[in-house]
Structure formats: structure tokens, C-alpha cells
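Two proteins were folded this term; both appear here.
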Amino acid sequence: MANLSDLTSGRGGTQGRPVPLAAPAPWTPGLWLASVAALLAVTAAISGQSFWIDEVNTAWRLTEPRFAVFLTNMTAEAGSDAQMPLFLAVMWGWAKLFGLDEWTLRAINFVWILPGLWVFANGRAERLVVAATSAFLWYYLDEARPYGMQIGA
């Protein structure tokens, strides 16, 4: 296997030229259909069922109306929620814009999962459909916790 210095020095068959990246796949009708199917599948995965205990803890934190107090409370605690400040800060803004009900707090996972699915699929319709219908993905999409952010990243 050639390493980076082989590829740029001419020993890898490129005569010192950088190796070009593959062009993104063109938008075909199949890819459009797979994208719509993936969006519908991901939308169906998020429910309005009642919160479980960790989600209640997240929602409770988001009830603080002042961001400065929210940050002070978050940094004062030593629990596991203090280990995910980006998630909680984004959720605080999301809750102020869209509300605190179950479906709305879980819907933020769209923000993280959809770009992650697109990158994973790399322009291939079959990958997009398989990933979007994954039971593992559906399970974690239906939680108001940072799992969607972690999967999407």
C-alpha cells in the first residue's frame, strides 16, 4: 500500500501530482427517491411518547429562561450532564424556539442525523436507505439525549 509520501513523490504512479478526490455522485432519480424515503423513515422514528428519566432531566434543565443561569447551573453540577455542554446549550436554544414537548425535543436529532446520513451514504441510494431504516438509528433518534448528535457526527 502506498503512503502519502509515495503518492506525492512520484513513487506511487502519480509522478508527483496529488491524487484527485472522487467527484460526488450525481443526483439520479434513485437517489432522490432514496432521500425522500430516508426523510420519511427518520421522521417516522421520532415519537411523542412520554419522556423517560434522563429525558425528563434534560427537559427540566431547559425550563430555565435565562441562559446565563442555565450555564451556571450546568457547570455547578458534577453529574453526567455536565459532560455534554454543547448538547445542552443547543437544546436550550432549540427549546426556546420550538417548545418543550416530547416530539419537539426529540426532533432536534434531524439536525444531526440527516447530514450524517448523507455523508455516510456518499451519494449511494442503497446506503442511504439501509442506514435510514436501521433499528439502531431509530432507537436513538427517539430520545432527547445527545445520541443523535454523536451518531450524526
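Next, the second protein.
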Amino acid sequence: MLTAKPYHWYCLLASISLEVGGTLIMKLAQGWGFAHAQLLGLIVMWLAIGLSYIFLSRAVTGIPVGVTFALWEGLGLTCITLGGIFFLDEAVTLNRALGLACVLGGALLVNHGTGHGTGHGTGHGTGHGEAHAPARPNNEATGPSALAEGGNR
């Protein structure tokens, strides 16, 4: 059973911050006026994205995978878009605002609809951590004596 601790949430926030920062640095470096600025921006982005994945891998040890990735992608996309608006003078459009609302709404729905570590399995449980075994037919012989008598197990 997964138990989310503050550590896991901090790792997720660090992962999102590094993803956003690396992506924005890559774009900002396109406008820097010194030699090899674009290459430096790419290197910083690669390092930040690599660290982002390291923190993301730590976050999923305590937060359900669906929740982790929904929040990582949803908040990451939102922050990158807002960063583009505030730092890169990108336009705010109705379609962009509606798209961000849908992304955030979807991430929140995934978060709300997940049992937050109430068990592993295929989703056949009750949502409270217990999984039910499929019913076995009553006419089936079981045990060592059934095998000796030609049972079909």
C-alpha cells in the first residue's frame, strides 16, 4: 500500500519546478546575445529535465502513478504556459485559457477519483484496499484427494 508523505509531494513539486524551469530556460536562451547561448540553454534544459525525472521517480513511490503524472503534466503545462505569457510575451487567448482549465480540471478529477494508495491490483476491489477473489464453482473438486481421483486441477 502506498502512503503519501510530505516528502513525496515535495519531490513532485521539485519535479514540476525543474521541468518548468528547464523548458523556460531553453526558450529564453534563444534570445541571449552571447556565443553558444542556445547550446547552454539546451544543456541546462537537459539537466533540469533529468533531475525532474529523478524527483518524479521518487514521488511515485508514495503517490499513485495516475495522480503523479496527472499533476506533473497538468501543473507543468499550466506553469509553462503561464511562464510563456509572463516572461516570453506570448498571447493570452480564450482557447488557451479554456485548454488550461480543462487540463487542470482533468488532473483534479484524476486526483479525486484515485484511492490514494488503497491497494495494488487491477481495480476489481471495493476501493477500500481489499481485493475479492473470483468466485469458484461449487462443483469443482479440490485438494490432494481430488487430484488422486482424477480431478481437473
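The chain has five helices and no strands. The chain has a mean pLDDT of 80. These notes refer to the second protein only.
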